[in-house]
Specification:
Length: 79
Amino acid sequence: MIRALVTGSLYGPPQARTSQAGKQYVTAKVRADGKDGAVVWCSVIAFGEQADRLMTLGDGGGLSRYFPRWLHAGLGRSA
């Protein structure tokens, strides 16, 4: 299990999407500051009320979210 607090800014506007089953969700990319000035890129998928809140933010909007449960560990890094 990975627990994380992700803080950063949106890279581009959030994108509203619809699953094959007809469910609404939102995706976004977050640029977070890593150790020693590195950038950590995180992909976010939100559903329900969180998706509605995410859609109110625009490109560069500040974001902070605690993930107390399981996370996908495929985080990309770039300098």
